[in-house]
Write a structure and sequence with these properties.
- The structure is a single chain.
- By secondary structure, this protein is of the alpha/beta class.
- Among the domains are: 69 residues, Histone, subunit A, CATH 1.10.20.140; 71 residues, Crystal structure of tRNA isopentenylpyrophosphate transferase (bh2366) domain (Helix Hairpins), CATH 1.10.287.890.
- The protein has 13 helices and 6 strands.
- The chain has a 6-stranded parallel sheet with strand order 3-2-4-1-5-6, sandwiched between helices.
- It is globular and about 55 Å long.
- The N and C termini lie close together (11 Å).
Length: 305
């Protein structure tokens, strides 16, 4: 199996800068794993790498998709596979970096199925997961497939989505299916580094970042998207931040209230991300300041048999 480096963690913790530092240290290229940074024209609200950061390391799967198009974890894994192949062919190190746990898990373990995925259903469930969290979807699963809900942890969003998608697509509970999905065989050898810090420090960083986004013109960015035909009902425009600014544009919220709610909802999203990644096996937890330790870990991993 090919070796890759994976960097994960909650929003606002500094994954972009951390990944760039590693890429420069180990001759790497970065593959984004963020469900919002994939979209073109959505820069400020997604904290997309800026021109200076993009110049420091080659980035893949960032800023390539029209906001009107749906996208899901299965499509992500296919494109990420190609990016890994391209990077490896150049004798460079693939570094997957992002906070969308479902994307990372689909790349590392795949979406193995006995039938085609319904892309629309999967995209809708993924959007619901990001907006409302896995316990909300787990409650839906309890109604349609209580046996599966009993087996699947309320915070295992990946399996919950898969079970709901199967039921909504086929009408058959996944617990009755003879073909079961296995996540025990990874598709890559990955050294997965999870970034962590004190939660109160992270929340402070999140609030500062929201203030910077507003100062950079986030409201204008969303207004320009709307003026260019991207309706606020689009899934991409219903994400954190964009839906908040949309309510300001529609005169449903004043700017002060919208910013306050944006900070609150981003803190909640970060908490859900922490919960997701803490359940994932094999993650090496490291503070964002421990960059030199990370380089040492990566070099040992890349040279090991």
């Amino acid at each position: 199996m090919k070796k890759i480096i994976t960097i994960c963690g909650p929003t606002g913790i500094g994954k972009t800068g951390f990944a760039i530092f590693l890429a420069k240290a180990v001759n790497g290229e970065i593959i984004g794993a963020d469900s919002m940074q994939i979209y073109k024209y959505m820069d400020i609200g997604t904290a997309k790498p800026d021109a200076s950061e993009l110049a420091q390391a080659n980035h893949h799967l960032v800023d390539f998709l029209d906001p009107a198009r749906d996208f899901d974890a299965g499509q992500y894994a296919q494109l990420a596979d190609r990016a890994v192949d391209t990077i490896v062919q150049k004798n460079r190190t693939p570094i997957v970096a992002g906070g969308t746990g479902l994307y990372i898990r689909s790349l590392l373990y795949g979406l193995f199925r006995s039938q085609p995925v319904c892309q629309d259903t999967l995209a809708e469930l993924t959007q619901t997961l990001e907006k409302k969290g896995s316990p909300y979807l787990h409650h839906q699963l309890e109604s349609c497939d209580p046996m599966a809900a009993q087996r699947i942890h309320p915070h295992d969003g990946f399996r919950i989505i898969r079970a709901l998608e199967v039921f909504q697509t086929t009408g058959i509970p996944i617990s009755e299916s003879q073909t079961q999905q296995s996540f025990t065989h990874p598709r890559y050898r990955s050294l997965t580094l999870g970034l962590y810090m004190d939660r109160h420090d992270l929340y402070h960083r999140i609030e500062q970042r929201v203030d910077r986004m507003m100062a950079q013109g986030f409201l204008s960015e969303v207004r320009n998207l709307v003026n260019n035909g991207y309706h606020l009902n689009l899934k991409s425009m219903q994400s954190i931040g964009y839906r908040h600014m949309g309510k300001v544009i529609n005169h449903e919220l004043d700017i002060e209230t919208a910013v306050s709610l944006l900070k609150r909802d981003t803190r909640r999203y970060a908490k859900r991300q922490f919960t997701w990644f803490k359940k994932e096996p094999g993650i090496v937890w490291i503070a964002p300041s421990q960059k030199n330790r990370a380089v040492a870990l990566v070099k040992d991993f890349l040279t090991s048999l």
